[in-house]
Design a protein that fits this description.
about 150 residues, mainly beta, 2 domains, 11 strands
Length: about 150
C-alpha cells in the first residue's frame, strides 16, 4: 500500500476550527509515503497427557514489508490442571542483527478459593544490547457471579 503525503493532511486550506484558522501545511508534489505492513501466520498444537497435564507448542512466521523475515517459536507445559506452568521460547529466529532471543517463564494459577482466583507469572527475556528483561504479573479475579442465583 502506498500513500501520498496529501493523505496525511488533516485540515483543508483556510478551515476554521474554534476561533483559530488552521492553514494547510501540505504542499503539492509531496513524495509518496510507504506504510508498513506485516503478514503473520502461526500454528499451535495442544498435547494432553495423563488427564491433568498439557503441552502447547506454537510457531509464528512473520513477513514485514520493511524488514527481514523471522520466526518465533515457543512452548508451554501446564501441570496439574493448569495450576503450574513452565514456558520457553525464542523470539526473532533467523532475523539478522536482532537483540531479542531466549524467553523463559513460570506461572501459578490457583482457583481453589470460593470467591476469587489468583494468578502469578514471571518471565525472563535475554536481550543482546540492553540488560535482560524480567517481568512480573499478578492477577486476582473475582468470581462473584458464579455464586449468585
Amino acid at each position: 500500500m502506498q500513500m501520498t503525503g496529501q493523505d496525511f493532511c488533516s485540515f483543508k486550506r483556510g478551515r476554521y476550527i474554534g476561533r483559530r484558522q488552521q492553514y494547510d501545511r501540505c504542499q503539492p508534489g509531496n513524495r509518496p509515503v510507504r506504510t508498513s505492513a506485516r503478514l503473520q501466520i502461526g500454528l499451535s498444537r495442544d498435547f494432553e497427557f495423563m488427564d491433568q497435564h498439557r503441552l502447547t507448542i506454537a510457531v509464528d512466521a512473520v513477513h514485514p514489508n520493511d524488514n527481514s523475515q523471522w520466526v518465533d517459536v515457543g512452548g508451554e507445559l501446564s501441570l496439574f490442571n493448569n495450576l503450574f506452568s513452565l514456558r520457553g521460547g525464542y523470539k526473532a529466529l533467523f532475523l539478522p542483527d536482532t537483540q531479542e532471543g531466549l524467553t523463559l517463564g513460570v506461572g501459578i494459577n490457583y482457583g481453589g478459593m470460593k470467591y476469587f482466583k489468583i494468578s502469578v507469572d514471571y518471565s525472563y527475556q535475554r536481550m543482546k544490547y540492553l540488560d535482560n528483561l524480567h517481568s512480573f504479573w499478578n492477577n486476582i479475579e473475582l468470581l462473584i457471579n458464579r455464586y449468585i442465583v
